[in-house]
Backbone:
């Protein structure tokens, strides 16, 4: 995880642009850890806490696109995600400001009391149509390269492809789903499918993870054969990714999850084990199909 730039390290023009929206910043503390954005700070202001997230001039095009997409999607998920307050650009820096919400990351381990709340968020998300915003990529166009019929991944729902525990903020009775930079357009069940893998990473068996999703209508109504086909067909692309980066521990960890899930789906469909199971450890790398 990359360290966030400190508030005092930002150029004066950037700080001034932010403070035109927030008022004077009394203090700044590090925000949640992130893989890509250069700035992740919680600002203490007279109007309350503000979370800023942004890129530096040297940030990659992909990271800048991710920040933009998160900002573009924000108005369409007001009941699920804290609101976007502002966006400023100065000296090559691009900063988004969000209402800071208290809370902690979700506990996805078996038996956690957070699981029903997380599942409820996914059920609500499954009812939302994908907005017409620039940069929202298509599951069928990108992940469909791995399947015989990409149309099985067609859909018009808003999909969150990164529903790991850190992206759920547990705030009392309220559960927020944040970080929409990897949002996509596709079948509503894909978000649940991604969560199943993160549940497995947290210690769930594949069958138990899928059972936990039973109350998500989009998952319950999805054709099992389509889910199985996607699970099995995704394994080779992960193997290729590992072959390209054999020392990448995250990739090696995630391929174990993907294989275990594919084996489970294949056996449930009446087949035989495809692959050797392996317990995965670490944080998954899952952006292999992202444009750019």
Residues:
């Amino acid at each position: 995880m990359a360290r966030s730039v400190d508030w005092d390290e930002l150029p004066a023009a950037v700080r001034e642009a932010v403070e035109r929206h927030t008022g004077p910043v009394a203090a700044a503390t590090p925000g949640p850890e992130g893989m890509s954005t250069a700035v992740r700070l919680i600002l203490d202001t007279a109007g309350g806490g503000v979370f800023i997230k942004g890129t530096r001039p040297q940030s990659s095009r992909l990271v800048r696109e991710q920040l933009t997409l998160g900002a573009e999607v924000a108005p369409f998920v007001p009941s699920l995600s804290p609101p976007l307050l502002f966006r400023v650009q100065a000296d090559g820096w691009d900063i988004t400001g969000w209402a800071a919400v208290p809370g902690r990351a979700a506990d996805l381990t078996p038996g956690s009391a957070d699981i029903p709340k997380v599942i409820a968020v996914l059920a609500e998300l499954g009812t939302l149509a994908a907005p017409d915003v620039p940069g929202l990529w298509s599951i069928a166009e990108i992940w469909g390269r791995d399947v015989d019929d990409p149309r099985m991944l067609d859909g018009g729902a808003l999909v969150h492809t990164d529903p790991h525990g850190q992206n759920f903020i547990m705030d009392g009775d309220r559960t927020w789903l944040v970080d929409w930079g990897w949002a996509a357009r596709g079948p509503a069940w894909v978000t649940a499918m991604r969560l199943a893998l993160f549940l497995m990473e947290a210690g769930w068996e594949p069958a138990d993870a899928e059972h936990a999703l039973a109350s998500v209508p989009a998952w319950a109504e999805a054709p099992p054969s389509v889910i199985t086909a996607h699970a099995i067909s995704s394994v080779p692309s992960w193997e290729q990714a590992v072959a390209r980066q054999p020392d990448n521990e995250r990739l090696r960890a995630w391929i174990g999850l993907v294989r275990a899930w594919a084996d489970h789906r294949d056996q449930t469909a009446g087949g035989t084990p495809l692959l050797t199971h392996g317990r995965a450890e670490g944080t998954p790398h899952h952006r292999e199909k992202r444009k750019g």
